[in-house]
From TrEMBL:
Keywords: Signal. The keyword Signal applies. The lineage of its organism: Bacteria, Pseudomonadati, Pseudomonadota, Betaproteobacteria, Burkholderiales. Residues 1-24 form the signal peptide. Pfam families: NUP. This is Purine nucleoside permease. InterPro entries: Nucleoside_phosphorylase_sf (IPR035994), Pur_nuclsid_perm (IPR009486). It comes from Variovorax ginsengisoli.
Length: 343
């Protein structure tokens, strides 16, 4: 055994201690994660045609250029596209088309720790169809009710008595086959946006004249009504009558919009934060049936030059109308933070 003098033992201990101190100085402490983003308003679009800016606009581009141009994308596992946020707490993303696609993206975003949605408002935004008896090309509609078109039993008309409905609700879906959106919030949306100057096009004005309905011939306007959610692009007067039948069967308002996502996205939001702060905003780019001289198939698959026109104007109209509400909420956040204020 080697024996050290007291002086050598002291020197050895001092060297060992200095080595430990040096090693501890090299230890890297992981930075704390940033606090979650406090989301005041979340804008959900379903698709974009190309890039988020600088080309032909789809549902997201006008929103992006107004609120997030230059913002860093936030990748969310499970979501179709990144989320963008600005310094004012306005966030948004493209969720994908259809009920499953959009709602799965919304769920992933809601559960991501980068965001705090506890006080957020939602604008479910996009394009849609409308029945010519109640709407027109270029109009913008705030949803009062969201009705799921698909949850039930449906059969072929030839297998039924003439003129009778070919749809029957299925029991068990009562809590999520229709949602009444907060009337106070819809009232605020209309108060803030009803007089928004809307874009129109000569192509849309010409196309409207093919229809005899007074509503179909109207210039674009801001209105309200039931939004009918279905994964099927239904066309024709028979399917339109069925949609209206379902809306009235469920106690909703007349349906004015046909779309593919809002009821499913709202169900996801309801299960996490409730529906009092949900808004559905749609712009009509087509009629859900042909004019009296046009077959349903011809309307569904129009020849070149026979489409409705007005798409680019409508997607801009949606953002013009919706941004009035978004801007008001953010500017007056102390009044909106704890819930929809009295008007």
């Amino acid at each position: 055994m080697t024996h050290f003098s007291p002086r050598r033992r002291l020197a050895f201990a001092a060297g060992l201690l200095s080595g430990i101190v040096a090693l501890s100085g090299c230890t890297t402490v992981a930075p704390s994660p940033p606090p979650p983003i406090q989301v005041k308003v979340f804008v959900a679009a379903m698709f974009e045609i190309g890039q988020n800016t600088g080309d032909r606009a789809g549902e997201f581009q006008h929103w992006y250029e107004r609120y997030w141009k230059g913002a860093a994308p936030i990748t969310v596992p499970g979501a179709l596209q990144p989320v963008y946020c600005n310094a004012d707490g306005v966030c948004g993303a493209v969720l994908g088309m259809g009920k499953v696609n959009s709602s799965s993206s919304m769920q992933a975003i809601l559960l991501n720790s980068r965001f705090d949605f506890s006080q957020a408002y939602y604008v479910i935004s996009g394009v849609a169809g409308t029945p010519p008896q109640r709407g027109t090309i270029g109009e913008v509609s705030w949803g009062t009710w969201l009705v799921d078109y698909d949850l039930g039993h449906r059969w072929a008309p030839e297998e039924n008595k003439a003129g009778e409905p070919t749809f029957m609700p299925r029991k068990g879906y009562e809590d999520y086959r229709r949602f009444q959106l907060n009337p106070a919030l819809v009232g605020w949306a209309m108060k803030l946006s009803a007089d928004t100057p809307l874009k129109d096009s000569q192509a849309a004005r010409t196309y409207r004249l093919r229809y005899p309905d007074e509503a179909a011939r109207r210039a674009p306007f801001v209105g309200t009504g039931t939004h009918m959610t279905g994964d099927t692009f239904f066309h024709g007067p028979g399917m339109s009558r069925q949609a209206q039948y379902i809306a009235k069967l469920y106690g909703a308002d007349d349906y004015v919009i046909t779309e593919m996502e809002a009821a499913a996205i709202t169900l996801v939001i309801k299960r996490t934060h409730g529906t009092d702060r949900v808004m559905s905003l749609r712009g009509a780019v087509n009629f859900d049936q042909g004019h009296p001289g046009e077959s349903t198939l011809a309307h569904l698959d129009p020849a070149p030059g026979e489409t409705a026109g007005g798409f680019s104007e409508t997607v801009e109209n949606v953002a013009l109308v919706g941004s009035r509400v978004v801007d008001h909420i953010v500017l007056n956040w102390p009044q909106w933070r704890d819930g929809v204020p009295a008007r």
